[in-house]
Amino acid sequence: MELYCWAAGWGLPSVDPDCLTVLTYARFTEAPLKLHKLSNPWRSPAGRLPALKTREEGVLSKTHEIITHLRKQKYNADYDLSARQGADTLAFMCLLEEKLLPALIHTFWVDAENYVVHTRKWYAEATPFPLNFFLPNRMHKQRLEQLQLLCGDDCLEDEERLEKLYHEARECLTLLSQRLGAQKFFFGDSPASLDAFVFSHLAPLLKAKLPNGKLQQHLKSLENLCNYCTSILSLYFPWDSGDPPATAPRPPAPEGSDSEEDPHKWRNQILSVLVALGAMISYAMLSGIVSIPWTEPSLPGRWPISLEEEEEKE
Amino acid sequence: MSLVAEALVSQIAAAEPWPENAALYQQMKEEQILLSDNASSLAVQAFLQMCSLPVQVVCRPNAEYMSPSGKVPFIHVGNQVVSELGPIVQFVKAKGHSLSDGLDEVQKAEMKAYMELVNNMLLTAELYLQWCDDATVEEITHPRYGSPYPWPLNRILAYQKQWEVRRKMKAIGWAGKSLEQVLEDVDQCCQALSQRLGTQPYFFNKLPTELDALVFGHLFTILTTQLTSDELSEKVKNYSNLVAFCRRIEQQYFEGRDKDSSSTSRFSKGPLLR
């Protein structure tokens, strides 16, 4: 089985909560997976991340499908749970999905300051060249639309409803903290699928360096949840933000933005020269200063123009 | 409502006792109300009954447009209007009536989690069935939803609502599900509820909480509503303790009331709970 997921960053093995869920679940159950950490979702066999390539069922790309598949392969983290604990797992997953997820999406993708300074920066630096211009924006738009549908069209403009969204999320964090209490995991001493799910949604919030950390501060005030995240991180992902030796090469660490600056400058310079050149050539051709009897050369003129449009979008 | 305003309102609310003329608004029960709205309305009625607060059920064809949040049911108490179960529970608590005070912190967290389970799976499945299953949409949802309005307004409003619900389904990833998958989810949810309930009379042993009201509202409505097929109610009927739970709450809180309001949920000629 081969697992494709988003690359490491922010001190986490993967930046995307869905990928992190699958990855954590696999670690808990010690499922033998060949891991591909990608920064280009188009390289994934499903066209999106996470994705699991299996021999029996082809490519799976939904988190719960992947976990169900692993469970069928006898990698079951919930084996020791009683039926009632299984019911609790489902209930708390729903609680997280209904109450915390909207606020998380807002914190990472919609809050203007966090999105520009933190999330978009990471994705733009991690994704390869042509993709970095539009992929972060596209993800932002998808998340924005999702959030609008989840909590109503006018909820993002309305301060009070936004405050309510965050109020519910803080309440959800408090409830989780109360449920966890002094235990090591939600159901005693061994991790279960609920732990994978909760950890993967809390850890990014805990580890990300967000300029606007309303929700983050509340999480940091709940000591047992913070310890819970750090202990899972150190127990199951001892290489910190790094990746296991067998993975495909990934782009340089996003934290070291100084080393990232230079290739960008070069890229931008080359790109602007190309655009200018394209504009000049096309102007020369269109106004008849240069004319070539052959019809093909109008094509290279079109290419740099399309690039120019992409740059404007960014 | 901002948090400050909310705090202020709850202070004012606390000062006034529960009036005799409190009213709960919902759509017309015989010819208009849909499965999901009826379930939510019944949940609120059960909750208020459990708190022994009297409320009169008022049916209005435009209840959906009267509600401050656009959702049914809503209660009109004194000079305040509150909609949906969550805020109503808060409001009633401010007046000094609460069902969950006896629970410890862990139990409270579990209660909230199970309430979200019902909202996330049962309610969404009801919405899916009534707006995304073509047979149900054609035979039940459109005629009932548009019943108070003349043609072509009835079609337009029903399509508008359908479009809105389908977009929401897409956002939560339910749009691609088949009816079988949705029924499978319902089964999973009922199984979880059944496991949690076990042999206890209520979810948290001897005394009812708002979770019991919510579960009762949804399961009782599913059990007693006649749809195009009875696949949905069959899923619930597989769990005998859940059926017994519904019957128990019905007997305890609804049988004594006058016949008119106790027949709320039986808006269609469906079989009563046996």
UniProtKB/TrEMBL annotation, chain A:
<keyword id="KW-1133">Transmembrane helix</keyword>
<dbReference type="InterPro" id="IPR040079">
    <property type="entry name" value="Glutathione_S-Trfase"/>
</dbReference>
<dbReference type="InterPro" id="IPR036282">
    <property type="entry name" value="Glutathione-S-Trfase_C_sf"/>
</dbReference>
<dbReference type="Pfam" id="PF10568">
    <property type="entry name" value="Tom37"/>
</dbReference>
<comment type="subunit">
    <text>Interacts with MTX2/metaxin-2. Associates with the mitochondrial contact site and cristae organizing system (MICOS) complex, composed of at least MICOS10/MIC10, CHCHD3/MIC19, CHCHD6/MIC25, APOOL/MIC27, IMMT/MIC60, APOO/MIC23/MIC26 and QIL1/MIC13. This complex was also known under the names MINOS or MitOS complex. The MICOS complex associates with mitochondrial outer membrane proteins SAMM50, MTX1 and MTX2 (together described as components of the mitochondrial outer membrane sorting assembly machinery (SAM) complex) and DNAJC11, mitochondrial inner membrane protein TMEM11 and with HSPA9.</text>
</comment>
<dbReference type="InterPro" id="IPR019564">
    <property type="entry name" value="Sam37/metaxin_N"/>
</dbReference>
<feature type="domain" description="Mitochondrial outer membrane transport complex Sam37/metaxin N-terminal">
    <location>
        <begin position="19"/>
        <end position="139"/>
    </location>
</feature>
<keyword id="KW-1017">Isopeptide bond</keyword>
<keyword id="KW-0472">Membrane</keyword>
<keyword id="KW-0832">Ubl conjugation</keyword>
<dbReference type="InterPro" id="IPR033468">
    <property type="entry name" value="Metaxin_GST"/>
</dbReference>
<feature type="region of interest" description="Disordered">
    <location>
        <begin position="244"/>
        <end position="263"/>
    </location>
</feature>
<dbReference type="InterPro" id="IPR017410">
    <property type="entry name" value="Metaxin1/3"/>
</dbReference>
<comment type="similarity">
    <text>Belongs to the metaxin family.</text>
</comment>
<comment type="function">
    <text>Involved in transport of proteins into the mitochondrion. Essential for embryonic development.</text>
</comment>
<keyword id="KW-0813">Transport</keyword>
<protein>
    <recommendedName>
        <fullName>Metaxin</fullName>
    </recommendedName>
</protein>
<dbReference type="GO" id="GO:0007005">
    <property type="term" value="P:mitochondrion organization"/>
</dbReference>
<dbReference type="Pfam" id="PF17171">
    <property type="entry name" value="GST_C_6"/>
</dbReference>
<keyword id="KW-0653">Protein transport</keyword>
<keyword id="KW-1000">Mitochondrion outer membrane</keyword>
<dbReference type="GO" id="GO:0001401">
    <property type="term" value="C:SAM complex"/>
</dbReference>
Automatic annotation (TrEMBL), chain B:
<feature type="domain" description="Metaxin glutathione S-transferase">
    <location>
        <begin position="187"/>
        <end position="249"/>
    </location>
</feature>
<keyword id="KW-0007">Acetylation</keyword>
<dbReference type="GO" id="GO:0001401">
    <property type="term" value="C:SAM complex"/>
</dbReference>
<dbReference type="InterPro" id="IPR040079">
    <property type="entry name" value="Glutathione_S-Trfase"/>
</dbReference>
<keyword id="KW-1000">Mitochondrion outer membrane</keyword>
<comment type="function">
    <text>Involved in transport of proteins into the mitochondrion.</text>
</comment>
<dbReference type="GO" id="GO:0007005">
    <property type="term" value="P:mitochondrion organization"/>
</dbReference>
<dbReference type="InterPro" id="IPR019564">
    <property type="entry name" value="Sam37/metaxin_N"/>
</dbReference>
<protein>
    <recommendedName>
        <fullName>Metaxin-2</fullName>
    </recommendedName>
</protein>
<comment type="subunit">
    <text>Interacts with MTX1/metaxin-1. Associates with the mitochondrial contact site and cristae organizing system (MICOS) complex, composed of at least MICOS10/MIC10, CHCHD3/MIC19, CHCHD6/MIC25, APOOL/MIC27, IMMT/MIC60, APOO/MIC23/MIC26 and QIL1/MIC13. This complex was also known under the names MINOS or MitOS complex. The MICOS complex associates with mitochondrial outer membrane proteins SAMM50, MTX1 and MTX2 (together described as components of the mitochondrial outer membrane sorting assembly machinery (SAM) complex) and DNAJC11, mitochondrial inner membrane protein TMEM11 and with HSPA9.</text>
</comment>
<feature type="domain" description="Mitochondrial outer membrane transport complex Sam37/metaxin N-terminal">
    <location>
        <begin position="41"/>
        <end position="161"/>
    </location>
</feature>
<keyword id="KW-0813">Transport</keyword>
<dbReference type="Pfam" id="PF10568">
    <property type="entry name" value="Tom37"/>
</dbReference>
<dbReference type="InterPro" id="IPR033468">
    <property type="entry name" value="Metaxin_GST"/>
</dbReference>
<dbReference type="InterPro" id="IPR036282">
    <property type="entry name" value="Glutathione-S-Trfase_C_sf"/>
</dbReference>
<dbReference type="InterPro" id="IPR050931">
    <property type="entry name" value="Mito_Protein_Transport_Metaxin"/>
</dbReference>
<comment type="similarity">
    <text>Belongs to the metaxin family.</text>
</comment>
<keyword id="KW-0653">Protein transport</keyword>
<dbReference type="Pfam" id="PF17171">
    <property type="entry name" value="GST_C_6"/>
</dbReference>
<keyword id="KW-0496">Mitochondrion</keyword>
<keyword id="KW-0472">Membrane</keyword>
<dbReference type="GO" id="GO:0015031">
    <property type="term" value="P:protein transport"/>
</dbReference>
